[in-house]
Amino acid sequence: MSGRPAGRPFWVLVVWYDNLVKHFLVFLAVLGTVFYALSPLAAESAPSPLAAESAPSPLAAEPVPSPLAAEYAVSPAAAEYAPSPLAAKTAPSPLAAEYAASPAAAEPAPSPLAAGGQKTVFWRYTLNRHGNAVLTDPLEVPEGEDPFAFLASQRGFDKWLLSRGKKAFILSEKAVSGEVPVLCFHKIGRQERFALTPERFRRLLRYLKKDGWYMVSDYQYLQGDFSRVPTGLKPIVMGADDGGHNNIEYQVYGDSLTGRIRPFAEGPRMERNCMAYILEKLAPREEGRINFTFYVSFDAIPFRQLGGQRNPGFPYRGISVVEQKIRYLDENFILGIHSLSHEYVYSMGIDAFAEDILRAWEILDDYAGGRAETVRALAFPYGVGEVTADVYRKLSALSRNGRFLAGAFDLDGGCARPPGNLGNRFDVSRINVDNEHWNYAMAMLENADAVKARRDFIWESSSKRLPPSPYRLGAAPSDQVWVLVRPGGG
After folding, report:
1. What is the CATH classification number for the domain harbouring 386?
2. For the chain, what is the largest distance between any 2 Cα atoms, rounded to a whole number of angstroms?
3. Closest Cα partner for 148 from 176, 124, 120?
4. Can you tell me whether residue 219 is helix, strand or coil?
5. What is the chain's Cα-based Rg?
6. Within a 13 Å sphere around the CA of 59, how many CA atoms are in the beta-carbon half?
7. Contacts by 344-349 with C-beta closer than 8 Å and gap 24+?
8. Residue 27, in any domain of the structure
9. Angstrom distances, CA of residue 272 to CA of 189, 202, 277, 332, 433
């Protein structure tokens, strides 16, 4: 018979004894605490200064003075040091007092280049590496020298033109080397000679944009004014002779020549494949107009539409639809003269030809309401060959409404000379562009030693400061902008 309770396993008994020991130890701890609280030691320790609040130590209240400290306090060196000017306030040096009274100390003298001073200085506008606008690389203009001529020489412009933009001057180069293509069209069509398909005309305009060409007017070229051409682009002149079919064609009822114009709320609508419509869609505008010249002759109905009106016969005055077209072209494109009777200059004779040109100019003015604003040049019918001194003298003397002809265009198949080395301005080369000569014309463009425009924008100010943004000045990203600082500028 075992000595442990019956039916209980051994490990249960071990746990029971373990709990009994723990309870006994807790009882002893409680008993010890009660005994200590009632003992004299616990009563005596209750008011301990450490338990309530530490009493101030004599050492904490007032330190005993050290003999060394006392000796130092009465030391002559210490007495002399205490009121030292260096300890309170440094006495001013004679040199410092002299500098304080100096005008140089009051305000540093500005550099003439830094502040503009009395010097005339060009500052180059650029962006630093953080993309912030800064003015750098000053160019001081020698006293007495024209600043624009000075800048042109610094920029390597042998010949140049100064024009006034909306917010800045534009200094543009008149190139003395290179070529300027002048393209001549006649009509849109599928014939081989003197016609170009609408598909090829659209393709050409897209090519010009992609290849970096910029359309300038005939007058801009003759004047050498490439101030509207962004730096790096290639100027090109374009126009159409005759005022023929499909130069500008309105939608009509029935036959294109005699049919009545279809009425629309916004006015006549152009046929989608006429030259003016394609140009409206693909050619850029410059100050509201497209730089493309329609050289009109009056040997046939201009633009070959009567709009339902009776044919008045040569020289075709008083046709309402022709008046609409002439005014539209004068407002949105460029007009030019192609003669009245479309005769070769040397077949007519010089005097008769000059009179023929004047009569054509008069009719254009009448159709435009008294004055065709854009007429400034002539395109010779059938070209001209050599322009003699007599032809030059006669044509350069022609004028209407206070204006003279600026020049005239041949049809000899070559590129024109650069505007800074123009030669005879009444004998400018042109390239005929039609279906028969399409490949030749495109090869001429691709292989031309083309002039590339260069221009600078100059913003004038009386002090060195940043100009409006180049975009607001009218500059392209490729153009250089300068700030001209000079007394009384801005």
Report:
1. 3.20.20.370
2. 161
3. 120
4. helix
5. 49
6. 0
7. 344/381, 344/382, 345/380, 345/381, 345/384, 345/391, 346/385
8. no
9. 13, 11, 6, 17, 20
Q: How far is residue 66 CA from its own chain's centroid?
A: 83
For the record, the structure tokens of 196 come out as 């170009």
Tell me the two tokens of residue 24. Answer: 């006994």
- Is residue 96's pLDDT more than 50? no
Same domain? For 212 and 340 the reply is yes
The residue count of the chain comes to: 490
Judge if pTM exceeds 0.85.
Answer: no
Q: How many independent structural domains does the chain possess?
A: 2
Would you say residue 49 lies in a domain?
Answer: no
Name the burial class of residue 382, with classes exposed (0-12), middle (13-18) and buried (19+) by CB atoms within 10 angstroms of its CB: middle
Q: Do 247 and 362 sit in the same domain of this protein?
A: yes
From start to end of 40-145, where are the E strands? 121-127, 133-140
Over the stretch 428-439, which tens digit does the pLDDT of each residue have? 999 999 999 999
Q: What is the DSSP letter of 303?
A: G
Q: Are residues 367 and 467 in the same domain?
A: no
Residue 78, SS3 per DSSP: helix
CB 125 within 8 A of CB 473: no
Residue partners of 480: CB distance under 8 A and separation at least 6: 124, 125, 231, 456, 457
Per DSSP, the three-state class of 470 is: helix
Q: Are residues 409 and 324 in the same domain?
A: yes
> Is residue 447 domain-shared with residue 468, that is, in the same domain?
no
- Spatial CA neighbour of 455 closest among 181, 224, 140: 224
Tell whether 382 and 256 lie within a shared domain. yes
- Residue-number span of the structural domain to which 133 is assigned: 112-159+457-485
Cα separation, 308 vs 324, in Å, equals 14
The pLDDT of 56-82, averaged and rounded, is: 39
* Tokens (6 digits) for 251: 């939608």
Instruction: From 425, 351, 339, select the one nearest 382 (Cα to Cα).
Output: 339
